[in-house]
From TrEMBL:
Database matches in InterPro entries: AAA+_ATPase, ABC_AA/LPS_Transport, ABC_transporter-like_ATP-bd, BCA_ABC_TP_C, P-loop_NTPase
Record lineage: Bacteria, Pseudomonadati, Thermodesulfobacteriota, Desulfobulbia, Desulfobulbales
Protein name according to UniProt: Branched-chain amino acid transport system ATP-binding protein
Source organism per UniProt: Desulfopila aestuarii DSM 18488
UniProt keyword Transport, yes or no: yes
Keywords: ATP-binding, Nucleotide-binding, Transport
Amino acid sequence: MSNPILQVSGLTMDFGGIRALNKLDLDVHAGEIVALIGPNGAGKTTFFNCVTGIYTPTAGDVLMTRPGDKKPISLKGLKPNYVTQKGLARTFQNIRLFSKMTVLENVMIGRHCRTKAFILGAVLRNASTRREEQQIAEMSYSLLEKVKLADLANELAENLSYGAQRRLEIARALATEPHLLLLDEPAAGMNPQETQALIELIREISSDGQAILLIEHDMKLVMALSDRIYVMDYGKKIAEGNPEQIRTNPEVIKAYLGED
Ligand code: ATP
């Protein structure tokens, strides 16, 4: 079997006296949808922050194996922009769009985050750059079609509905062409119709072969989409399995799901 795209082992994060992550092991393979669930304060977002370079973990390893790579690379200690360049993109629990820019420009920025020009801050106004910009605009527009926002391409991001803003964040993350997409509570604050549309969108993205790791409290979404689920409590993994195994696991019911 090939190496997982993401292989996390022994991940530990201390904030002063608080151990937010405690020797967590987790992996995601190509094409999988994996969910990370657990009660408030379990350490889920801290996990994303450690994997994406926002925090440097106290201990443990974060390895990524990209398609075609013989050996994994370590993401530990890399700054977030370099983690994105290696092929790991994320969305945030609280929407973080460039509200005064257009919907299309928001997605184009995602693409620039993957290119060297953006890292160097040197977008030169010469003919080849204009050609590149045109290509990036076209690629970004096709992503807007995927998330059903193409009609709103020239609208300011701040004018979108809540559900549409969440879909725009996903398009911006996809514009970086990630090997793995991390979604932090993508359904938070959505109404049932918006959540259903999100489930269909995530299914469609996954059917293109995109590996996805998501944090979510909405169990309908988690159970409908996940190939595998990890359950955390107090920074530790308390269970791992497919949706049926998790639904019927007594420890998970006690710590998180509760009785029906
Ligand atoms: P939720 O489902 O509510 O989003 P979570 O599972 O994502 O919760 P985290 O936000 O990762 O949980 O928090 C895990 C623990 O780490 C909590 O006790 C939290 O207070 C603590 N924590 C997180 N970030 C920091 C920080 N920057 N400084 C100090 N403590 C922190």
